[in-house]
Design goal:
With 140 residues, the protein is an alpha+beta fold. It is 39% helix and 20% strand. It has a 4-stranded antiparallel sheet, with helices on both faces. Bound molecules: adenosine-3',5'-cyclic-monophosphate (CMP).
Length: 140
Amino acid sequence: MAVTRTFSIIKPDATRRNLTGAVTKMLEEAGLRVVASKRIHMTREQAEGFYAVHSERPFFGELCDFMTSGPVVVQVLEGEDAVKRNRDVMGATNPANADEGTIRKTLAESIEANTVHGSDSDENAKIEIDYFFKPEEIVG
Ligand code: CMP
């Protein structure tokens, strides 16, 4: 299995509840290594650009409101089959449907305030990493 990278966001509901360490611990225990990390307050423009794929969805405005409502921690994670590994530990988008032991089942508040984002493919991981990080900010 190849070592790959994925992109993660620790969302405003988690930073508000001081859970960035708790989330990162679960990511690390799942075999992922944080190779880049920064705490930022996303601008509206950044959030709308990042979630452009969802721009026609009815929840787009509220999603961008939420993602700009407080600080987030954007991270690059590295590990064997990192995209799937991260999605497995995150759990389903809606915490009500997430498996026991996953981040969303354990910590998330709702489908919107669902604590973490993770890339859904290697291709999107690269796009999302490049959206927030310069190559020299990633130290493996
Ligand atoms: P994320 O992985 O960050 O990608 C898009 C986000 O939209 C998703 O997590 C959810 O937090 C958010 N979202 C809000 N409402 C919905 C909804 N009804 N269906 C799917 N995603 C939603």
